[in-house]
């Protein structure tokens, strides 16, 4: 099918941000990660907070759009089989062959395990529980670490495809068309209100675990992002509305993000004793300040996602050199990147290279490792490709066909 180049490009951008974010996790202060450098960088928290509020939601949003675009080509039954193969096989392979090095590095840094990686791997592959605290997830016998996105996406995809016949039988297509036209205002307002409910009601009761079962706060906002992407994928009126409102959405995102990060910074200044809290508490009680920050967070989350879609459709819906290659490399590099980050940090931390060279080398080793492993191994060996979510053979370039005219026509106002 004629591809949406903006969606492909946004996926590449999302992966790049994910790599930068996870490198930052090694150095950010007070945020737990599988490995931490003694060289902590206080400033990295601020850009990480801004990206953190929507980075994973963007991946689920793009995944929902991708599924919506392909629905017209395949039956739900065929898609269930295809998506299960492309998600569960890489998940199983990643748990057994890619993630263990993270667990080993973490255990070595914590001092809970002192043998080599080969001995650790033989014990890990037995899938028996370890003493709690040996590494993250040790009590379960295995861990999926950053690959948690795959089982979540599989469950959302399965639920959507199983529900599709029922939705079609009860007139779901008419509801979708109404939402895309007269009911469009609900798509702008309900998700941030739902996010506000999730943060106020669900977040205090359900800690973020990425364990799939019982992770209700994460399901609340990732599921909404995925469902929204599935709904709008082929709805041209919504894409036209996004284009027309791209500056408004950007303004809301900047205002929401500015208020949210500003209140966070103010709280840090108060905690450090650099600013008195009394003038602010006279205006409103502390609980009101917290609620204001939560409201700003919800607005920023949704406005940023919509603005990214709008500007992507405006500026990125065209091929660029290397897009096809980069789009194929996204999935393998996603599977590889965090293990390479943790391993690189484990090697470099003892060298005491300082606050500039160490993170830069961790990033460089990670990117070089992802690119070289994908280029030299994954994409060239047929039986390896499915282990990283790729088809057995590379797809040949296809030409646009007449029926591709059903894709959303993105028109700049």
| Separation of the first and last Cα atoms | 26 Å
Average of pLDDT: 91
Number of helical regions: 16
What can be said about the biggest beta sheet?
A: none
The number of strands is 0
Strand content: under 5%
Shape verdict: globular
Radius of gyration: 22 Å
User: Which regions have little confidence, pLDDT < 50, spanning 5+ residues?
Assistant: 399-413
Helix/strand class? mainly alpha
Order of helices and strands: HHHHHHHHHHHHHHHH
Helix content: 55-70%
Could you explain how this protein is built, in words?
InterPro entries: Acyl_transf_3_dom, Glucan_succinyl_AcylTrfase. There is one protein chain. With 413 residues, this protein is mainly alpha-helical. It contains 16 helices and no strands. The chain is 67% helix and 0% strand. The longest helix is centred in the C-terminal third of the chain and has 30 residues, at 286-315. It is globular, with a radius of gyration of 22 Å.
Keywords for this entry:
Glucan_succinyl_AcylTrfase; 16 helices; transmembrane helix; disordered C terminus; membrane; acyltransferase activity; single chain; transmembrane; 413 residues
Q: What's the short version?
A:
The protein is an all-alpha fold.
List the helices and strands and how they pair.
Elements: H1 5-25, H2 45-52, H3 55-70, H4 76-98, H5 100-110, H6 117-124, H7 149-169, H8 172-180, H9 184-202, H10 216-232, H11 236-244, H12 246-271, H13 278-283, H14 286-315, H15 323-348, H16 354-378
Helix pairs in contact: 1-3, 1-14, 1-15, 1-16, 3-10, 4-7, 5-15, 7-10, 9-10, 9-14, 11-14, 12-14, 15-16
């Amino acid at each position: 099918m004629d591809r949406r180049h903006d969606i492909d490009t946004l996926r590449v951008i999302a992966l790049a941000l994910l790599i930068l974010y996870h490198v930052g996790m090694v150095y950010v202060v007070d945020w737990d990660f599988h490995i931490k450098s003694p060289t902590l960088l206080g400033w990295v928290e601020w850009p990480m907070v801004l990206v953190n509020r929507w980075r994973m939601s963007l991946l689920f949003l793009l995944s929902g759009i991708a599924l919506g675009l392909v629905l017209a080509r395949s039956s739900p039954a065929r898609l269930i089989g295809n998506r299960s193969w492309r998600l569960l096989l890489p998940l199983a392979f990643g748990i057994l062959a890619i993630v263990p090095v993270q667990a080993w590095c973490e255990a070595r840094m914590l001092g809970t395990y002192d043998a080599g990686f080969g001995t650790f791997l033989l014990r890990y592959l037995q899938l028996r529980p370890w003493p709690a605290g040996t590494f993250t997830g040790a009590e379960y016998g295995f861990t999926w670490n950053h690959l948690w996105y795959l089982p979540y996406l599989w469950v959302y995809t399965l639920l959507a495809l199983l529900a599709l016949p029922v939705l079609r039988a009860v007139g779901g297509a008419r509801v979708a068309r109404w939402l895309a036209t007269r009911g469009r205002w609900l798509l702008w307002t309900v998700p941030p209100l739902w996010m506000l409910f999730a943060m106020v009601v669900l977040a205090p009761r359900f800690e973020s675990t990425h364990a799939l079962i019982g992770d209700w706060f994460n399901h609340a906002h990732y599921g909404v992002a995925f469902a929204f992407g599935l709904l709008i994928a082929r709805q041209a009126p919504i894409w036209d509305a996004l284009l027309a409102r791209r500056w408004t959405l950007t303004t809301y995102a900047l205002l929401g993000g500015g208020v949210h990060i500003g209140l966070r910074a103010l709280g840090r200044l108060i905690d450090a004793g650099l600013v008195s809290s009394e003038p602010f508490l006279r205006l409103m009680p502390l609980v009101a300040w917290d609620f204001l920050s939560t409201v700003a967070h919800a607005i920023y989350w949704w406005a940023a996602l919509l603005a990214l879609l709008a500007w992507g459709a405006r500026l990125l819906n065209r091929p660029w050199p290397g897009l096809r290659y980069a789009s194929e490399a996204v999935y393998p590099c996603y599977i590889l990147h965090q293990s390479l980050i943790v391993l690189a940090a484990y090697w470099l931390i003892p060298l005491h290279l300082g606050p500039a060279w160490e993170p830069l080398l961790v990033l460089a080793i990670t990117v070089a490792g992802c690119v070289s492993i994908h280029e030299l191994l994954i994409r060239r060996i047929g039986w390896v490709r499915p282990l990283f979510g790729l088809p057995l053979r590379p797809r040949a370039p296809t030409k646009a066909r007449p029926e591709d005219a059903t894709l959303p026509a993105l028109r700049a106002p």
